Amino acid sequence: MEHRKQLHKERVPYRDRELVVEGPLPPEDVSRLRMHADLDAFRRPDEQHKALVEIAGLPEGRIIVARDEDTIVGYVTFHYPDELERWSESGMEDLIELGAIEVANEYRGYGLGKRLIRVAFAGGQLENAIVYTTEYYWHWDLEGTKMSVWEYRRMMEDLMKCVDMVWFATDDPEICSHPANCLMVRIGKEVPLESVERFDRVRFRQRFMY
Questions:
Q1: What one-character DSSP code corresponds to residue 25?
Q2: How far apart are CA 156 and CA 150, in angstroms?
Q3: How far apart (Å, rounded) are the C-alpha atoms in residues 94 and 1?
């Protein structure tokens, strides 16, 4: 599979200046930026910064950032599924995970989440891939946003729908462990039927056991 990476950039008005949303960035560009201190949803900011640099260097890896001058204030990651997760079992080269999306608290409310995701898909660069994301309520900032689980779930669905990702059923135990958890998927226009069928077998492990 060809991993197409086409740099796209948008400018977003913010108070008395502009923010830049751009990517996918090469690792050297990510390493020159610093992380906002509030970007700690998954790990400490300095550790997350190292992870972003590593992902940016992967053949399939994509890092899209929103930055305020040289400070990363939001990001989204794309990479192959973790080898410990069921989604990696198929060994599909055209199955890519939208792994994490995070925006610093003071920069929320400016539509950065949607802009980050739209830049990632700009120019048809992911039309030859199945892109999925697994949403788990325990990763959500319910306290910071003062949202209920279901309000946050609707917000995440709306966010992913901006690039035509839709809800897909699965029998994955982690997703099924809470009704707010969900699997959202976008199947690119160039993805062959064989890949879609392989992905279906991963989504429903039980169906194909008997």
A1: P
A2: 10
A3: 7
Annotated domain spans of the chain: 8-208
- Residue 44, classed as helix, strand or coil, is coil
DSSP H/E element including 96: strand 95-103
For 60-74, the DSSP string reads S-EEEEEEETTEEEE
Domain over 8-208 is classified CATH 3.10.20.90: no
Judge whether 148 and 192 are in contact, CB under 8 Å: no
Q: How far apart are the first and last CA of the chain?
A: 32
What would the pLDDT profile of 113-161 be if each residue is shown by its tens digit? 999 999 999 999 999 999 999 999 998 889 888 899 999 999 999 999 9
CB 66 within 8 A of CB 72: yes
Q: What is the pLDDT of residue 205?
A: 82
DSSP 101: E
**13-29 residue pLDDT tens:** 999 999 999 999 999 99
**Residue 15 has which token pair?**
């108070």
Bridge partners for 197 per DSSP = none
More confident residue, 103 or 141: 103
